[in-house]
Amino acid sequence: MKRILGLGILLLSCSAALLAAKNSQTFYVAEDIRAGKTLIPRGICEVTWSEPTGSQVLLTIKTEDRKTITIPARMVEGRQERTGVVTSVVDGVTYLKELHTKDAKFVVEHPSNAPR
């Protein structure tokens, strides 16, 4: 009985890890960028996202220096040709505009995305 219980717990923990991996992506930031007022330093980052509420999600970005940043975004599901970040420069400051994963893109909503 203990073996069956142990096997069940092992299977549950493996499925939880696989489910968590489904909602994560590693990406490289070539230069310091801002997400709203928060600075994301250059380097390798890992992003995870919450289950969508409508099209809204929370992105949690972990940087190489173990800093954690949480930002709201709009999720657009669909296969993407490339993964990575899309940035825009406003008044000399580089902002995170979109994050592309293989199955979705996330549009970061902050004032720098508004058309001028």
Main features:
116 residues, alpha+beta, seven-stranded antiparallel beta sheet, two-stranded antiparallel sheet, 9 strands, globular, disordered N terminus, disordered C terminus
Domain module count: 1
Number of helices: 1
Radius of gyration: 17 Å
Strand count, sense and barrel status of the largest sheet are:
7 strands, antiparallel
Can you list the strand order of the major beta sheet? 1-4-5-6-9-8-7
- The low-confidence parts are 1-21, 112-116
Overall spatial form: globular
Q: What portion of residues belong to β-strands?
A: over 45%
**Between the first and last Cα atoms, what is the distance in angstroms?**
66 Å
Overall SS class = alpha+beta
Query: What's the helix-strand series?
Result: HEEEEEEEEE
Helix content: 10-25%
Mean pLDDT across residues: 80
Strand tally, please?
9
Explain this structure to me?
- Helices cover 18% and strands 48% of the residues.
- The chain is α+β, with helices and mostly antiparallel strands.
- The chain has one domain.
- The strands form two sheets. A seven-stranded antiparallel beta sheet has the order 1-4-5-6-9-8-7.
How do the helices and strands line up, and which of them pair or pack?
Elements: H1 2-22, E1 24-29, E2 33-35, E3 38-40, E4 43-49, E5 56-62, E6 68-77, E7 84-90, E8 93-100, E9 104-108
Antiparallel strand pairs: 1-4, 2-3, 4-5, 5-6, 6-9, 7-8, 8-9
Care to give the gist of this entry?
This protein has about 120 residues and is α+β, with helices and mostly antiparallel strands. It contains one helix and nine strands. The chain is globular.
